[in-house]
Amino acid sequence: MTITAQDLLETLEKEYPDTPQYELATFKASRLSIGHSIETRKKGVLEIQAFTRYWNIPNYGGQSFFVDKLGARIALEYGISDRFTFGAGGSTLDGIFDGFLKYKLVRQRSDGKGSPLSISLFQNMAYRSKRNRPFADVNRFDEFSDKLSYTSQLLIARKFTPQFSVQISPTYIHRSSSVFPDDPNNQFALGVGGRYKLGGHVSIVSEYFYVFNPLESTNTYDAFSLGVNWELSDVMLQFQLTNTRGMTEEEFITRTPNNFNFKDGNFVFGFNAIFVLHLSQKKP
Amino acid sequence: MNKLIVLIFFLISFSEHESTSDQFITRQGQVSFFSYTSVENIEAKNNQVLSIIDLSKNEIAVSMLMNAFVFKKSLMHEHFNESYIESDLYPKATFEGQIIDFDPLAEKQTKIIKGNLTIHGMAKEVEIKTNIENNNGSYLFTGDFEATVKDFDIKIPPILAPNIAKIISITFRFEYQPYEK
Predict the structure, then answer these.
(1) Residue A118 Cα, gap to closest chain B Cα (Å)
(2) CA nearest to B47 within chain A
(3) Which terminus of chain A, N or C, has less C-beta within 10 A?
(4) What does each of the 284 residues of chain A score in pLDDT, given as a tens digit?
């Protein structure tokens, strides 16, 4: 009996229409760890994001509990279509306000045909409202336009196995003004990141941004992050150990002032909380 | 000799035609499942289920793509495929079985279909009570049954256990038409 019913199943196998099958969830969240992933939110999905970074200052005489300094970012991301996301947010460190667009240009196919990669385009604009006294700032603060920066990224990712995905992110950053003539206004970087799923809900992620032409006026270091992503129904939590305090691209890619080690002031603990709201729901 | 070959070919092609006319297929079968808990209700529907019945042997087969299930929330769709069903590894759910005491000519009947249900790579023997209607040579199969999540080795983390029912109810509706290759 089973042998012939198997024949029927084989008959059905040939009846499947040739609709393209795409890889689902190369990454889970719109951020790999610190930087953007290829993932866009689905249509009608609103994400409410609260990111925080905690670090110590060496020989700081303050009375702070647990950590000396804290940076926070509140942001919203909205899926205009399944492949097009708009987001905006504000960060306390340097008073940065930013808006961005992300478009999923190419989707990796899971049926062995079509593209073996997913490609997304990312463009943001960030406005820096606060100086970082007593330290020297890299950009001028005279005009409104002096405080703007633009980041363009080509996000390229591949899901190799259900557990393992890798992304490379060629990045172009333009800063509208420089205080020091030696500092480049246009900077190029390459981000490399990956995730490995430990189970259905937990994955470990790591990300590194190499800057080809770093700032000359100050010592900067490449941003590195090692983290754990955890998702629970409508909530996604991302924990990271990193050397960067910034949460917008221009800041963490080009202006990270310290190396990754566990000395006070260098080591940053990060925590991203993302809450997902479905504003438009499908009828099943 | 040549005539004999022609006759054999004729007989073979005729007999093939005979056997296929016993088969009925649907390409737009509907399967829905429901998980009701006090925390949240999860509901999903697949409108592209394939199924075939063979009247000569009273056999039935069903095959569906797991990522074709449509959910109210897009995140549920992602979690279902990524974290629970693992549709990367097990893209399809299948059923193969036998319709017990099936009478192809009866207008309305309720019969037991006995067979193997395979979800998440795990096969489980089930018996499904099915209402069968015969409308002038096309068949309508409808019914519902329950499946236990644990039987299919689907891992649910303890913190999310209250959100997902231990027993999922499944309904189906298949409208079969004669199968022509």
Answers:
(1) 16
(2) A284
(3) N
(4) 445 567 889 989 888 988 888 998 899 999 999 999 999 999 999 999 999 999 888 877 766 667 788 899 999 999 999 999 999 999 999 999 999 999 999 999 988 888 999 999 999 999 999 988 777 788 999 899 999 999 999 999 999 999 999 999 999 999 999 999 999 999 999 999 999 999 888 999 999 999 999 999 989 999 999 999 998 888 999 999 999 999 999 999 999 988 888 877 788 999 999 999 999 887 77
Mutate which: B82, B124, B155, B164, vs A, most A CBs within 10 A: B82
- Amino acid at the residue A69: K
Least CB-CB distance to B50: which of A6, A16, A199?
A: A16
| pTM listed for this prediction | 0.86
Give A-chain residues touching B51 at CB under 8 angstroms: 12
Question: What is the distance, to the nearest Å, from the Cα of residue B160 to the centroid of all Cα atoms in its chain?
Answer: 28
Q: Does A234 touch chain B (CB under 8 A)?
A: yes
Å from B53 to nearest chain A CA? Answer: 8
Asked if the Cβ–Cβ distance from B83 to A6 is below 8 Å, we say: no
Decide if B54 and A8 are in contact by the 8 Å CB cutoff.
yes
